């Protein structure tokens, strides 16, 4: 059974969002890391890059597959978790601690299109 | 089998030689200037002739190929390669050709091969320059782009690719400078035409499809799709990787495709695997012939030795039997599918073409209280029983995908033996999953740590391994 944290928002492509003021922390869900298997590489954007809700901003590679990371919100990347470049396993160890990017949101209404913990639990049907 | 994993460097003894050169009768050339000389001698292995012969013979016995056993690698068409192909390619009139000499016999082969492939596919003309499937895709997309640009239509920058496509399709489009737009599949594994329609505007250069698709399913609405794409001004590209089941039965040209490549190394039985050698000739419909004429992929005729083997294959099989190739490949795949679907998850019911996809074992190990094993475990366990593993974790549509393509060259006895082993593995997964988690047990190496290998790759030979 995958862990789902209350208080976070979730996308259909299995990213989570934690809102801190006007900044959104984005990572991938515990379900996503389990499905991917051991993560071997995190392809990160750069600080200052624009991201658009529904479009890819990076990628995860595992022993099984490579998978695009889809931004749940639009805005500007204000921080990237560069530690993941050397320790991609952090995503497997605790998917909710391993945030990938922080986004200064340009349209906080993007959040309304995301699922809450209960809806996400129903979505992944575990 | 004797286990053997030495490097030739490990056999080296200082001063040992495997050759003797005649005494030099010519005056010595002057010494090279100092700045052109190496500071130290090259660390080459010093070995005798028997050392070399045994070394490579032993290494070759650690290998697995279609000459060793059943190789059901989905989407790769690992059919048996008849030895007559090798005999023809070894004829001195062919194998001693220099690329720059006049070669009327070779040109005759290419011209006749062009006619044969055109007859098989319904295309008008082929170029043989591309040396592999993805090379063919890139060539085909460049033809597509030059067709639009030649008409003065500069706004066609998008290529539509189904979500079940081969990974090389979007990659080739991106390399060609085109934007990739994905179109979703329906529950039945076919392209969603309603999702396709809104994508078809004046920015679409074309669509890339393989038919049957990656799930081994025939796109039954292909004529409608072709009509819609053509009406929008786009072209249809056919990825020939899955041509095998259609041979002699259906032609991409008749389905409405404008450009295609064939994988001669898959469909037409030339040895491949481990990266080559391949041959990916690209065929075009008549209205695109002018785009082919101006095309310069390389100065020569591609991998001529591979083309020659494929030519020998077509001629030795003959027109009537070519049709049976497709039919038997479909029969073999459906036979395996129906014989195993009570133990492995079959996501889409119905008749498949030359290959099909299971979504892992019914006992998939996803529930803590039910013993089971993953697709990776099944693949590793197959090695213990002497079979090559199928393609796994592709296509991405299913999370535990196992893609099986038996080809037409396997006997019913081989297929039955494979089915029996797959059933045995399913039983082991239910009773003793630990056995599968630790597999393979009989292969030269046990399960490598793929994660460590990917995170800390050692990509070249090192005297001593890092601690």
List keywords for this structure.
heterodimer, A: 126 residues, alpha+beta, OB fold (Dihydrolipoamide Acetyltransferase, E2P), 6-stranded antiparallel beta sheet, globular, B: 467 residues, Aspartate Aminotransferase, domain 1, 2 domains, 16 helices
Describe the structure.
The complex is a heterodimer of chains A (126) and B (467). By secondary structure, chain A is α+β, with helices and mostly antiparallel strands. Chain A has a domain at 21-108: RNA polymerase II/Efflux pump adaptor protein, barrel-sandwich hybrid domain (OB fold (Dihydrolipoamide Acetyltransferase, E2P)). Helix content of chain A is 19%, strand content 35%. Chain A contains 4 helices and 9 strands; from the N terminus they run E-E-E-H-E-E-E-E-E-H-H-E-H. In chain A, strand 1 and strand 2 (15-20) form a beta hairpin. The longest helix of chain A is centred in the last third of the chain and has 8 residues, at 117-124. The radius of gyration of chain A is 13 Å and the shape is globular. Chain B has helices at 49-61, 83-89, 92-95, 104-121, 133-150, 168-175, 193-196, 222-231, 252-255, 264-267, 289-293, 304-340, 375-384, 412-431, 433-437, 450-455, and strands at 125-127, 158-162, 179-183, 204-209, 235-240, 259-262, 282-284, 356-359, 391-392, 401-404. Chain B is globular, with a radius of gyration of 25 Å. The longest helix of chain B is centred in the C-terminal third of the chain and has 37 residues, at 304-340. Chain B contains 16 helices and 10 strands. In chain B, the strands form 2 sheets. A 7-stranded mixed sheet of chain B has the order 1-7-6-5-4-2-3, with helices on both faces. Chain B has a 3-stranded antiparallel sheet with strand order 8-10-9, with helices on one face. The A-B interface holds A 35, 38, 40-41, 61, 63-65, 67, 88-89 and B 376, 393, 396, 399, 450-451, 454-455.
């Amino acid at each position: 059974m995958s862990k789902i944290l209350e208080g976070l928002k979730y996308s259909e492509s299995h990213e989570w969002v934690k809102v801190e003021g006007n900044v959104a922390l984005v990572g991938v869900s515990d379900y996503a890391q389990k499905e991917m298997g051991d993560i071997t590489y995190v392809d990160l954007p750069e600080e200052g890059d624009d991201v658009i809700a529904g479009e890819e901003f990076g990628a995860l590679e595992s022993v099984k597959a490579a998978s695009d990371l889809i931004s749940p919100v639009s805005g500007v990347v204000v921080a990237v978790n560069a530690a993941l470049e050397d320790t991609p396993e952090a995503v497997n160890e605790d998917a909710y601690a391993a945030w990938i990017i922080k986004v200064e949101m340009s349209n906080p209404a993007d959040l309304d299109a995301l699922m809450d913990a209960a809806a996400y639990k129903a979505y992944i049907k575990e | 089998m004797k286990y053997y994993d030495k490097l030739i460097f490990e056999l080296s003894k200082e001063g040992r030689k495997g050759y003797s050169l005649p005494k030099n009768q010519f005056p010595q050339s002057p010494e090279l200037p100092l700045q052109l000389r190496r500071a130290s001698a090259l660390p080459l292995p010093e070995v005798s002739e028997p050392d070399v012969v045994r070394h490579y013979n032993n290494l070759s016995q650690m290998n697995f190929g279609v000459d060793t056993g059943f190789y059901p690698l989905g989407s790769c068409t690992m059919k048996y390669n008849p030895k007559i192909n090798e005999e023809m390619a070894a004829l001195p009139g062919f194998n001693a050709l220099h690329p720059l000499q006049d070669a009327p016999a070779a040109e005759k082969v290419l011209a006749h091969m062009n006619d044969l492939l055109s007859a098989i596919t319904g295309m008008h003309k082929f170029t043989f320059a591309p040396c592999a499937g993805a090379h063919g895709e890139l060539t085909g997309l460049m033809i597509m782009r030059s067709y639009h640009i030649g008409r003065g239509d500069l706004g066609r920058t998008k290529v539509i690719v189904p979500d079940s496509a081969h990974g090389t399709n979007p990659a080739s489009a991106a390399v060609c400078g085109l934007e990739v737009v994905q179109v979703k599949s329906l529950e039945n594994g076919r392209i969603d035409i309603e999702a396709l329609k809104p994508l078809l505007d004046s920015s679409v250069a074309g669509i890339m499809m393989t038919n049957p698709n990656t799930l081994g399913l025939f796109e039954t609405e292909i004529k409608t799709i072709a009509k819609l794409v053509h009406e929008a001004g786009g072209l249809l590209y056919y990825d020939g990787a899955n041509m095998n089941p259609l041979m002699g039965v259906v032609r991409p040209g008749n389905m409405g495709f404008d450009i295609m490549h064939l994988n001669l190394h898959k469909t037409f039985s030339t040895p491949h695997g481990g990266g080559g050698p391949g041959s990916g000739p690209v065929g075009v419909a008549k209205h695109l012939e002018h785009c082919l004429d101006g095309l310069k992929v390389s100065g020569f005729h591609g991998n001529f030795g591979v083309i020659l083997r494929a030519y020998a294959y077509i001629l030795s099989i003959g027109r009537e039997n070519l049709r049976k190739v497709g039919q038997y490949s479909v029969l073999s795949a459906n036979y395996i599918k129906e014989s195993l679907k009570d133990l492995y998850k079959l996501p889409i019911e119905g008749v498949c073409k030359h290959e099909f996809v299971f979504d892992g074992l019914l006992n998939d190990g996803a529930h803590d209280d039910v013993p089971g094993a993953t697709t990776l475990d099944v693949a590793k366990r197959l090695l213990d029983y002497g079979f090559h593993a199928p393609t796994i974790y592709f296509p991405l549509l299913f999370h535990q995908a196992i893609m099986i393509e038996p080809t037409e060259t396997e006997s019913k006895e081989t297929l039955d033996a494979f089915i029996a082993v797959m059933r045995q593995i399913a039983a082991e997964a239910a009773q003793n999953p630990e056995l599968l988690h630790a597999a393979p047990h009989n292969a030269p190496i046990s399960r490598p740590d793929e994660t460590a290998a990917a995170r800390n790759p050692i990509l070249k030979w090192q005297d001593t391994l890092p601690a």
